[in-house]
Every structure is written in C-alpha cells, then in structure tokens.
Amino acid sequence: SFPMDESSYREHIAEVLDVVNRLGLAAEVRDWLTSTRNKPRLGKALSLPLESRGAEGDSLLKEFLV
To answer: What is the DSSP letter of 61?
Structure first.
C-alpha cells in the first residue's frame, strides 16, 4: 500500500536530507531522532517541525516553500 517504489523513496529521502543539511539543521534532527520516545504506528507518522534560525535561515527556508 506504500505509494513509492524503493528508488523513488530513496530519491525523496535524499532531497529531504539535502534541504535539512542546507538549512543547517542536521544536528537538531539527529538529536531529535535519538531522544524521541514516540514511535511511528500504522497510519500515524512522526513529525518534527523545523524552525529557521536568524535572517539567513529565513531566506534559506523561503527557498523551499512553494
């Protein structure tokens, strides 16, 4: 029932990682992944709202908004 094949999923994950890295938020994501007690369940995804930091982060974040 998953809508993507493996190669499409890997491509999508690579794009997400690129955005997180370019925003300079990789350490925040790593910390959250190692500290969260929540677990994904069938039909329930986990979410981590990312916030930009300062003017440079705001301009970078706007680049990814559609």
So the answer is: H
Give the Cα separation of 14 and 34 in Å (integer): 20
Distances (CA, A) of 56 to 10, 24, 40, 52: 28, 10, 32, 8
Distance CA 47, CA 53 (A): 19
The closest alpha carbon to 48, from 62, 33, 34, belongs to 33
HEC string of 20-55 equals: HHHHCCHHHHHHHHHHCCCCCECCECCCCCCCCCHH
- Regarding pTM above 0.85, the answer is no
pLDDT in tens, 56-65: 555 556 665 5
Strand partners, 44: 41
**Six token digits for residue 65:** 């908004």
